[in-house]
Amino acid sequence: MNDLPVTPPSVNPTTRAFWEATAEGRFLLQRCEACDLVIWFPRRNCPSCWTEDLAVFDASGAGEVYSYTVIHKGANDWKGAAPYVVAYVELAEGPRVLTNIVGCEPAEVRVGMPVRIVWQDTGAGSALYRFTPA
Fold this sequence. Notes:
The chain is mainly β. It has 1 helix and 8 strands. Helices cover 5% and strands 38% of the residues.
């Protein structure tokens, strides 16, 4: 298993609270107060009913692999990391997030595999979320 690049994210006013929370090991989700939809990624409006009435809460960090692919030939900063897994993880709270699966061989990853969040510090006041087998 190779180390994956840890590039600091691009932060804007809408995502700032999320990225600041990652430095504390917290994964924030939003819930629409009007229609109760749990939302990923940080945004100003509910994608279902368009209200701006969004509450923020700490996610559990638990989920399962929904879909994945193994990258065998990375490019640029990712060139030396291959093979690595890019996956959609369905969080226990409902939304799906695009991420990497780490802490196991790519051949061990399976759809439905329980995973939990792990953090990799960017060195820039934030951390990247990745998932490992639970």
